[in-house]
Amino acid sequence: MEEKMMRRTVFTSMLLSIFFFFLSCYEKDEYTSDPRSNFQALWKLIDENYCFFEYKKIDWDAVHAKYSPMIADTMSRYEFFNVLGQMLSELKDGHTNLITTFNTSRFWNWHENYPDNFNEVVHRKYLGTKYNLAGGMEYLVMRDHIGYVYYGSFSTPIGEAHLDEMFLYFKDCKALIFDVRNNGGGSLAYSERIASRFAEKKLLVGYIIHKTGPGRNDFSEPYPIELEPTKRIKWLRPVVVLTNRSCYSATNDFVNKMKLFPQVTIIGDKTGGGCGLPFHSELPNGWGVRFSSSPILDANGEYTEYGVDPDIKVDIKESDQLNNIDTIIEEALDYLEKATSNSTPTVKNTEYKNE
Predict the structure, then answer these.
(1) Residue 221: which residues within 8 A CB-CB, separation 6 or more?
(2) Rounded to two decimals, what is the model's pTM?
(3) Which of 130, 141, 125 has the alpha carbon at shortest distance from 336?
(4) Cβ count within 10 A of residue 28
(5) pLDDT digits (tens, 9 = 90+) for 285-335
(6) Phi and psi for 296 in degrees, rounded to 5?
């Protein structure tokens, strides 16, 4: 297992090396706070490295023509920041930011115009406080022997031992709800680690491509991404994954993987997307820039930049919220109760090791 993880780490490092190789090929600018020079540097950086121009049908030359007249030598750094932030928003990309000591630009429209489908107060009152907490996972057994897990961030470290303990806790449950609503992403390693617990065999889960040159369409051939099943405890009984529009980046990747398993059903709202791996660079004035450069495609070779559709679309009802009831959890419980009404759980655990 460690050897496989090392190979994946080496592959990721190779991609990073390729990316930064191309960045290093450009002549480095001396430090300057000149607005015109920094504007041009940002536009060129995105022009030569951003990965979704064709897919999103973005005319980057037209963007240059729109924002270039707004740049003036006499503008304050705050005015300049706002113009650059507006220009980056033309990419409509939640992975793209301008980062300074006084502010960070961001594009949040990918989820702002959708229903929340998650209410923190209702969630807490609905579940109570009698849950286990390990590796960022909150978990308990709900009605009719159905396990429930809430994982709020893929930035929260989750170890193999955490997952072993959780699945052992659910050993007598006939089904599982895995809730990742409002999970804005984090580490792809944790997405893979958790998803591997639901895989019975090796599975093609997607592809990755990377930039090979400064041209807007200079990309490598798609490189397949395969998910290896864990050699530890697996869960092959019925599963429902709960989603909303605020599932982004690594969470989008996790849902994309989980959707491929025959025992898994996705319930809730469409995810927020974000399938481009973000990379960082810097402008001549020292401001940081983050943007999408390497797309991850799904198993069919399609982009999921705009999100992954649920199998069953459910919105939280306002009347339920007033009574501290989570409509989406209720729908998942009802679905699993029907799906397992004539079945008896069978333990399908593989090798178990304590770390």
Answers:
(1) 209
(2) 0.88
(3) 141
(4) 8
(5) 999 999 999 999 999 999 999 999 999 999 999 999 989 999 999 999 999
(6) -105, 125
